[in-house]
Design a protein that fits this description.
Helix content: 25-40%
Largest sheet: 8 strands, parallel
Structural class: alpha/beta
Shape: globular
Number of strands: 11
Bound molecules: 2-phosphoglycolic acid
Order of helices and strands: EHEHEEHEHEEHEHEHEE
Radius of gyration: 17 Å
Strand order of the largest sheet: 5-3-2-6-9-10-1-11
Length: 254
């Protein structure tokens, strides 16, 4: 695992965007695993800057998003399909038929999970999976539990996750109770994983996830087993880590 810490959020976002752009440039048929939430919006902004400078093209890229709420129409502004269109897809030359996001409005969510797994399997291994970290240690919507599920599945969102996401809705009652999430097996199968965490409120869970026991009660702790894990933290999220674990910021972030 490589952990980098950035005092300047903009440099962190640039470093993440550059890592994504490098994968897109280096692979003939790159597959990106993408994340939503508050954390990656700056990363997508920086990726758009790189695209607008003409340094990267997405016409050969395939994407798979981690998750989607169940029960909201796709047109709802808080679905993850709306988020991705707004922050990235509407602005780049990524062919629409190469975009994969679970359909949370499918009348049969279990069937939709099977369809999503088939699409993942047909595409092959994800080259780079972008991840945020939940306050409770979730990745995607793989919530803490006694056991975790390998493949795409419907999940009941924990009260903590619904509370954390209530800021995007008018009230907590509007936050969906269920979601479809890519499973932990699909996430861990990615060739490279890029975990981004920001803010003091996540300093404790960062320490637990990266240095504590590997346990399904903290799904992100399973990332410790991944040989291609890069973690980008701001100073606040890194505050509880032993500084000896942290590599200097990468100078390619300009
Ligand atoms: P956030 O969510 O980026 O909105 O904090 C992260 C996550 O829950 O994975």
């Amino acid at each position: 695992m490589r952990i980098e810490m950035y005092t300047d959020q903009s440099l962190l976002d640039e470093r993440a965007a550059q890592l994504i752009a490098d994968v897109v440039k280096e692979s003939a048929q790159p597959i990106l695993g993408l994340a939503t939430g508050g954390t990656p919006t700056g990363v997508y902004d920086k990726l758009l800057n790189i695209y607008r400078k003409g340094e990267v093209s997405f016409n050969h890229v395939t994407t798979f998003n981690l998750d989607e709420y169940v029960g909201l129409p796709a047109s709802h502004p808080e679905t993850y399909v709306s988020y991705m269109n707004k922050h990235l897809f509407d602005h780049i030359n990524l062919p629409k038929d190469r975009i994969h996001i679970p359909d949370g409005s499918h009348p049969n969510p279990a069937e939709e999970c099977l369809r999503y797994d088939r699409a993942l399997e047909e595409a092959g291994r994800i080259d780079l999976q972008l991840l945020g970290l939940g306050h409770n240690g979730h990745i995607g919507f793989n919530e803490p539990n006694k056991t975790l599920i390998r493949s795409t599945h419907v999940v009941e969102l924990s009260p903590q996750t619904r509370e954390a996401n209530a800021r995007f809705f008018d009230s907590i009652d509007e936050v969906p109770k269920k979601a479809i999430t890519m499973g932990i097996g699909s996430i861990l199968q990615a060739k490279q994983i890029l975990l981004i965490v920001k803010g003091a409120a996540k300093a404790d869970i960062v320490k637990e996830a990266l240095t504590g026991p590997i346990t399904t009660e903290i799904p992100a702790s399973l990332l410790q087993t991944h040989p291609g894990l890069i973690v980008l933290l701001d100073r606040e999220a890194a505050a509880k880590l032993d500084p000896a674990m942290i590599a200097p910021p990468c100078s390619s972030a300009t």
